[in-house]
Amino acid sequence: MSGEVDRFQHGAALAMLLGDWSAGDGPLYRKLADAVARAVDDGSLVAGERLPAERELSRVLAVSRATVVAAYEDLRGRGVVDRRQGSGTRVNGRRRIPRSDGRVRGGQGTAIVQRLIDGPGRLISLGCAADAGVPEVAEALRAVADHDITELLRDAGYHPRGLPALREAVAHHYTTQGLPTSPEQVLVTTGAHQALVLLAEVYLRGASAVAVEVPSWAPCLDIFRQHGVRLVPVGLDDEGVDVHALAEALTGTTPALLYVMPTFHNPTGRLMSAARRRQVAELAARHGVAVVEDHAYAGHSLTVDETALPAPLAAYAPESGEVLTVESLKGIWAGLRVGWVRGPAGIIERCARRKAMADLGSPLIEQAVAARLVPRLAELSRARCVVQRRQLAELEHLLRQRLPEWTWTTPDGGSSLWVRLPGGHSADVYAQLALRHGVEVVPGSTMDPTGQHDGYFRIPFVRPLEELAELVSRLASAWTELVRHGPHEDLPLRPVV
Questions:
Q1: Is 227 a member of any domain?
Q2: CATH code, 57
Q3: This prediction's pTM
Q4: Which of 106-115, 168-177, 225-234 is predicted with the least confidence, judged by mean pLDDT?
């Protein structure tokens, strides 16, 4: 049987697909059966697909095995699945293949993206680590309306490479950081996510592997998975990606790309040292591997003075190295969907052609706003970090007070804590109980395919202080239920005759 129809044998993958399946009234086994049936009806589960074994799914969903058995029997009675001894439980191959309904599918990270589309509802979602926009965005917008709009309207409006003023501002931004850059080396994108998509299209045609840090952010990994490549995991140490493990990975295979987050890594918040950046750049160049450095959280310093931050990894690369630097204005406001990629002019041109085919260029008014903000990035980041340090301190205080057995390392930067559950508890199981207490947890299994971080999950702290208190209260209630009572017992009522 192909991997396509066996992709949900592991309960964690199916749990992510089902999302908040336990919400609402009624017995759990019926709600579980309904959620699986919906996934089949909308095409998320395909004909012939094997579902997890009863014991495996009950473990991950934190319910009794009898609940899963009852749900599977309910599905069999509806004709949704077939159950055969030795073959397991599979989606009925005779069911009509539905048309796509446009829902986001793919790897485990796509459930996080789908939550952005659906909206959080009653949940506090830990899938998103973005704060409200800064007031300076409004100031820049007014300045564009007062001073720039007339000149912009004289333009035809198509700039696939990006508004020249913004490309110049980004080039100056990197030059002042010790990475000399010209506007020809900059492509403006609709957020950093599009930059990664374009780079994947350029580098992964016919490729077999991408080397990635583990853990790493699941939606980014899914961009690579969609090209059918194998992810080669490389672990971290206190200075960032483990250079010895990286050397071993690059010696054993020749990946098309190495994907790293050197400045406040997501989800650990670690800062890669300058010495480590040089080692990584030189090692990748020696093996002929291009590096994509993602600076999604570059402006989120918590324990390090912004002026003491190392230059981008590209600044340490030898002439033979190929490093692409991806960044955005997410730290200013995620709603300002402006990002960019900086790299060799030839690669930037190839990415620009693909962007032109996708959207003919990002909206110019947003880029004009960004052009006014990029020169102020350091100033705006310092102001925002003052607020984020208070938020981090409050979250750590609440966790020590309510959940003293949980452990974490205070991050160098970023917007989240990377928390480890004690006693070998699975974050996949805890995530299911947390859902029933109104919190969507993204477990470590989605960020590390090796299984080494199954007991971890990420808690973003960039939210109002009163919401942090409610969040920790819900997390503590879910933890108490897991420790005291374990999986939920939920059996269908059967008459006794």
A1: yes
A2: 1.10.10.10
A3: 0.83
A4: 106-115
